[in-house]
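Students often ask what a 'structure token' actually looks like in practice. Rather than answer in the abstract, let us consider TetR family transcriptional regulator, a protein of 145 residues. Its sequence is given first.
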Amino acid sequence: MLHHFPAKEDLLLAVLADRDLRGDDIKDGLALDEGLSAQASHNAGTPGIIELYTTLCAESTSPEHPAHAYFSGRFRRTRASFGEQFRALQQAGRLRSGVDPDLAGAGLVALWDGVQLQWLMEPGEVDVAAALRHYLSLVILPDRH
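Now compare that with the structural description of the same chain:
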């Protein structure tokens, strides 16, 4: 194992990279709101992985930390992806007036991580999927089709 993962952080990052790949599989082909709900429901069944993600993320704020590049890259990609999805909704006339797609994407990332942390602290009190759906209802107009 030490051959493939010379440090503990390398092993933990491999676990998180695998989690990211599986998360993409969960959301593939789903609309933004459906994909978020599916991912949040899946995450609720894997609290240990979510705790690992949250802990390692907090530890990696220093540029010298081995996980810093992983998390800064992940945040950049996630913000860009959500921004693109919000931009597509804007082009379809479904984003509320005055909503900036990139800021909405950054806000969604911040909300998700923050609510997920609260859920880890009080699992019976916080519903991550409900918080995400509520946020989306504030920025996205209902589909009229």
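One point worth highlighting: The radius of gyration is 16 Å. Ask yourself how you might have guessed this from the sequence alone, and why that guess would often be unreliable.
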